Amino acid sequence: MGGQLIDGKALAEELREAFKPRTAALAAKGHRPGLAVILAGEDPASQVYVRNKVNACEAAGIFSLEARYSADVPQETLLAKIAALNADPAIHGILVQLPLPRHMDEKTVLEAISPEKDVDGFHAASLGALVQGHPCFIPCTPHGVMKMLEAHGIDPSGKEAVIIGRSSIVGKPMAALLLNANATVTVCHSKTLDLPAHARRADILVAALGKPRFVTASMVKPGAVVIDVGINRLPPEEGGKLCGDVDFESVREVASLITPVPGGVGPMTITMLLANTIEAAERRAGK
Ligand code: NAD
Questions:
Q1: Burial class for 136, CB neighbours closer than 10 Å (0-12, 13-18, 19+)
Q2: pLDDT band, residue 2 (cuts 50/70/90)
């Protein structure tokens, strides 16, 4: 038995189908959506993520442009490229693949992106608007999680939501979204005391800490909805496969709904990037 799966792959495909008429309508009016992806360095995981994003754009009818640089590229070069892309009418979204090389200041680079083109939602202006409940580009991973809850008829209102992890790209925007949806939100992190006691209160438990199989069945309230954001590569002696932050097999026995890894949150993240890029193009076309 066990909890029902939230199939992120299937939901992502369904949403991507629905994008096609929107991109076609924009293209017919001369506003084909365009996404620029900037990659500095040779990090193999980043290269895979960038390739996946570019392929997903092509399949959805979004024009994509890759700007690749070596790891020693001066920050000024990246800032000049971002300025040019900010001014380019064919580009509606700009994404800088993280992590950046060590000599760069992430905040300076991300904040060089015009908020109108900040389809990753990492600009301070985007996060500020999100916290205040104003329209903005929502960071793709937590946005995808909200879509998954919606697709399964889970209304966070009045529910206890516990998030493990407080990064600016997942944990904090996830907390803001659940709070905006009227959940009672707890954010746990590396300094939280008695984390299992907090986790056991959760009706909705989101694991986003980057520790393989951290969440075990004894930390989960029976019937909880468990969302596993984590993507971890197991060492070769453990099979070298991808695994999440949740001990899927044991937690599935306790949860009512659970996301697998892979095939859960991951496909939804790229889907929401496409959604934000199309929305940026629609906003521009409407001007
Ligand atoms: P991060 O390293 O920036 O942040 C991790 C957070 O977890 C920190 O706030 C830290 O305080 C907390 N944490 C670390 N160890 C902890 C512990 N033992 N107990 C409690 N809290 C702890 O990571 P991130 O960028 O937010 O990513 C988190 C995970 O999600 C990673 O596995 C990452 O690969 C994955 N991720 C997946 C997607 C996706 O599309 N599915 C997108 C982004 C990130």
A1: buried
A2: confident
